[in-house]
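[job 4417] fold queue: 2 targets
>>> target A
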Amino acid sequence: MKNYSIDLGLAVLSAVAQPGDRLTAQEIAEVCECSHVRIGQIERGALAKLRTALEKRGVDADSVLREERSGEHAVVVLDDSPAGSAC
């Protein structure tokens, strides 16, 4: 079943987030009214789809995506180097 509060929460966060903002899965979950575990599931699914789309276009996903960890925060960053501009 579709959880519209997650969609709404993510839309709100997208609208108000500034470049460089970092939120924990728990902070996102509170806005989306779901568990941090569900946020992790959504994140992994989205990254898998992104990796597949990049690879279909002949782009090495590992060359344009990198994960940065800082305490509780994990952020996947789209690399803005010239190698990342291929997509």
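>>> target B
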Amino acid sequence: MKYQNVDTIVYNNWRCNHQGTNMFQILRKLKSVNREVKDWSKRNFGNFNEKLTKNTEKIDNVEERLIANPNSYRFTKRIGGNLHQRIG
């Protein structure tokens, strides 16, 4: 499972000893975990906002094409009939 790596990141960073008050030690551990989980996320999922923008543009493009030609052969072939018959 992909997310087991996150468990390892948290475990390893939480084991580290830091000097200072208890609150300071917790703060350091949280910052360390946060930094490594962000790096892990970028490696495993990439830039989410960029992917979301690209996919939204693709959807907008398909919607525009469907509005312009709702009875296109490629579309009706995929849904198995006339669009107006299916929604009307």
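[job 4417] complete. Note on B: Residues 14 and 68 are 57 Å apart (CA to CA).
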